[in-house]
Amino acid sequence: MAKEIARRGDSEIARKSNALSHQKHKDAAKKHAKKSAGHAAKHAAKHAAKKHAAKKHAKKAAKHVADVDTRLNRTGAERDDLAAAFHHMQRASVVISLMEKGTGEDLRDLLERGVKLYEKALQNEAEDKKARRAVGVLRAAEHLALAGLYAARHKHRQKATPYGQNWLKELIANTDHRLDQVKGLERGKGPDLYPVSVELLRQAEDADHDAHLASELAMAAAALCLALENGL
Fold first, then answer.
1. Span 158-190, pLDDT tens digits
2. Which long-range contacts (CB under 8 A, 24 or more apart) does 204-207 make?
3. H/E element, 173
4. Which among 28, 114, 163, 215 is least buried, having the fewest CB atoms inside 10 angstroms?
């Protein structure tokens, strides 16, 4: 009987031991599952945060690219106007640099005004008129600079017969008509340029004996007229 009791005792102890071991394994499994779930949740949250940050960064980067594209790659007439304004600015600057010191002050002032108009047009690309004002003034500065240089070096001019004088007559007549159209407009920054345009056109008519000089003066008058038509 003692042996039977001992055997039963050993069996009970083994059962309890097995049950305790199973419970430990069960508790460990639950703890591991809870820990794994927490880790997965933390990883998911971290991944979501990174994804959100990536989207935010991508959106910000896209906006920056769009802004740069707007500033540097303008489309249509505005881009052409700004490119033309820069082109005339550089050509006028080079020609004016060839003039003797102390001469051409009015022309230098006109170039400076054109540069300021160009810079304002760059800052506010939404207004096409600002770009056209810059084009007009800088184009006029270039043609006047060439006219001045040409007059100073007149003895070196080519004696070849000019070709196609009808276009010059048409340009003068057309510019004269356009100046009549803007004569009564209110002007804030360019009231002095209207009489200058009229005088340049008159000089172009008087210089009909010199087609080159007449064309430079007429084109300068037409360029200033463009600036006046756009609110200068």
1. 777 777 678 999 999 999 999 999 988 877 777
2. 204/168, 204/172, 205/172
3. helix 166-182
4. 163
Domain parsing of the chain, residue ranges: 76-156+167-229
Listed residue (121, 127, 223, 138) closest to 175, CA to CA: 223
Residue whose tokens read 């800088």: 138
- Whole-angstrom Cα distance, residue 69 to residue 63? 10
Instruction: Decide: helix, strand or coil at residue 160.
Output: coil
- Check residue 185 and report its DSSP letter: S
CA separation for the pair 77, 119 (Å, rounded): 17
Rounded distance between C-alpha atoms, residue 114 and residue 81, angstroms: 13
CA max distance for the chain: 148
Q: How far is CA 231 from CA 38, 136, 138, 226, in A?
A: 68, 11, 15, 9
Give the model confidence (pLDDT) of 55-102 as tens digits. Answer: 554 455 444 434 434 443 444 455 688 999 999 999 999 999 988 777
Distances (CA, A) of 30 to 5, 22, 27, 59: 37, 12, 5, 43
- The pLDDT, as a whole number, for residue 109 is 94
Contact between 113 and 135 (Cβ < 8 Å): no
